[in-house]
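Hello K.,

You asked for the raw outputs rather than the summary table, so here they are, unedited. I folded two proteins back to back in the same session to keep the settings identical. This is the first:
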Amino acid sequence: MTGRDRIVRELALRTLEAARVAGPDAVAPIVQAGHPVLRAVASPYDGQLGADELTALLALMDRTMRAAPGVGLAAPQIGLPLALAVVEDPGAGDEEVARVRERPVLAHRVLVNPAYSPVGDDRVGFYEGCLSVVGYQAVVARPRAVHLTGYDETGRALDEVLTGWPARIVQHETDHLNGTLYVDRALPRSLSATDAWGAHWGSEPVPHEAARALGFEIPQTARPGAREEPR
C-alpha cells in the first residue's frame, strides 16, 4: 500500500468511526466548494479498505445522499479522495418532465473507478445543482448518451451505454472524482439562486424561458425527449 493509500485509508476509517459514534442513522458532513478535496483527482479504489469497511462506507454514503436529499454522492463530497460514488434517482414526478428530460427511475447502484466517454454528438442542456454547491443551479450542456466503464462494489465490470438523465447523473458524479464541479461546465449567465430558479424556471421541462430572460443559449444538438427508433 502506497503512502497515499494509507492516508486515504486513515481518512476513511476516521469518517467511519465518527459515524459509528454518532449512531446507526448517522450521515456524513458534505463538504462545500472551496474545500481542496473537491479539486483533487481521487485515488482509484484498489482494496484500501476491507470488505466490511467498504460496505460500511457505502452505507454511510447512501444515507448521506438520501438525507440531503440528492440523486448521487461521490466520496470526495464527504472528504475522501477515493474513486467511489453512489447514485439513485426516483425519477421525475411529472410525466411530461420525465419524457422531455428522459428521466426514468434509476435504481441504486455503486460506481467504483468509473469513467465515461460520449456516445454520438448529441448534447442537451438542463439545470443542475450540487450538494457541494448549495444554493445555486445552472444549465450544463452534456452528452445525451455516454459509455460507462468501471466496476460495482462486488468487482463486476461495468460496460454499458446510458442515455438521458441517468447519463447526466453518472457524468456529474464521475466528474467529482476528477476534481471537476458542475459549475466548471455550466453556462455562466444561467446561474440562478435556488429560490429564484424555483420561482421562475424550476417548472420548465427545458429552460427555454430562462435562456431568453437571462440571455444565454442552450447548445442543443438533440431535441429533448426525442425517441430513437429501436435498433
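The second followed immediately with the same parameters:
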Amino acid sequence: MLDNRRGNRSLFEHMVGYFIKYEFTEEKGPHAHALFFYDGQKVRKDEHYGDQIGRYWREKITAGNGVFHNCNYDKDRYKQCGIGMIDHSDIAKRKILIDRVISYMLKEEQSIDSIKQSSRDRAVTKAVLPRHKSSAGRPRN
C-alpha cells in the first residue's frame, strides 16, 4: 500500500509520517496495525481519513479481499485517547499516544517471526516524510 500511495495523491498528499506493525494470530492470520500522521493544518475529519485509507486498502490493494477496522470511530470508549487530532502543544495527549497507543502496537505476543518469508521482513515500519521548509510565519519554540 505504501508503494502505491502515489496513485492516490488526494488521500496521502498531506501525510507527514506513518507507523505500521505487522502481526500474526491464529484467529486473524497475518494483519497490520497502522497509524498515519497528517498535517493538521491541512486535514480534518480523522474518522473520514481512516475510512478512506481502509477502503483504499480493501478495494485497490487487496482487490476486495482485505478488511479494516477504524479505531477513530471508537474514541469515546478509551479512558485515555491518544488518537485523532492531536494539537502540537497538547503534551498530555501526545504522551498517551506514545505510552499507550504505540506501546500497545509494539507488544510482542503476536510476533510475525513464524510467517517471515525472508530475513529482510520487518515487524515494524515507520517513516517521517521529508517536509518542505517554508520561511513564512513565526517559528515554533
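The chain is about 25% helix and 20% strand.

Happy to rerun anything if the numbers look odd on your end.

Regards,
P.
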